[in-house]
């Protein structure tokens, strides 16, 4: 097909910030349909984009023969039915994370997409940060040596304001662990290895947000052992007062290996910190220019805010995988494996004990 027609299901902030600008970079791609259950949000997106075909029912959009691929940016509970129906209809699928409310549903999404032979992707956007891509390259090259430790810390200041459907387990499944720590779980799998076992704590400090009930976690701490023998510590919070939010707040990943340590901060998109065994300490390691954009992306890294624009390479990768008839660099299987870790963490917090993941991820 010369032109790829996309439908976007869910027209909230993530669509306007990430998905639409990314698709706009892609040649012969058209956003042909929009869907949102909220008529006001749908109308606002229609006016902003000029897309003529709209519906509040995702079933109507997926049934259209002129839609070739869908991006799912709805509350988490709706991801599985939309993705499975889309795959069965021959549509390529990119879904926001976390994929589902549980790993079984997430695995079903991936399995159905495989059966339908469509391209599929989980929106683990931070994989496309230039510093993360270079860190992955260095670790795979062996620069760190044997990995001993992985740690990540993601802190934001959301206070007690409402976060909408994300405060409802029935819609979101989990809170901070699915919303923010899921990215860092994916980092761990991407950089180290699969999880072997873990113990966790999930805490809800804010049962009311803006006077509305909140039954999800807003802080999570996780201690892990990986199949490669490394250990890991992860923390994420919405309640770190005064540290700001989004890409302006602390977000750090560190790897300690037998030969070197590396530190990655999303706010420093073009730099890592590195220290060698026996050396004087960590120092700046610039990112080579060839890692500034994903191979095959037309994005100019000198245009726009680099702490935002790296996200556009996600859509480019999805489109290129469709065109080239190859797997995406991060698939629904990656999302399902991260969901299995989330499920294990929830179980651990409930039982106050270690949970073995074994061969499930």
Helices and strands, with pairings:
Blueprint: E1 4-9, H1 13-24, E2 29-35, H2 39-49, E3 53-55, H3 58-62, E4 69-72, H4 79-88, E5 92-95, H5 103-116, E6 120-122, H6 130-141, E7 147-155, H7 169-172, H8 176-191, E8 195-203, E9 208-209, E10 212-213, E11 219-226, E12 231-237, E13 251-257, E14 260-265, E15 271-276, E16 283-286, H9 306-309, H10 312-324, H11 332-351, E17 355-356
Parallel strand pairs: 1-2, 1-4, 2-3, 4-5, 5-6, 7-12
Antiparallel strand pairs: 7-13, 8-11, 8-17, 9-10, 11-12, 13-14, 14-15, 15-16
Structure description:
By secondary structure, the protein is α/β, with parallel strands linked by helices. It has two domains: 4-125, Rossmann fold (3-Layer(aba) Sandwich), CATH 3.40.50.720; 127-303 and 338-356, Dihydrodipicolinate Reductase, domain 2 (2-Layer Sandwich). The protein contains eleven helices and 17 strands. The chain has helices at residues 13-24, 39-49, 58-62, 79-88, 103-116, 130-141, 169-172, 176-191, 306-309, 312-324, 332-351; strands at residues 4-9, 29-35, 53-55, 69-72, 92-95, 120-122, 147-155, 195-203, 208-209, 212-213, 219-226, 231-237, 251-257, 260-265, 271-276, 283-286, 355-356. The strands form three sheets. It has a nine-stranded mixed beta sheet. Helix 4 (79-88) packs parallel to helix 5 (103-116). The protein starts with a strand and ends in a 5-residue tail after the last strand.
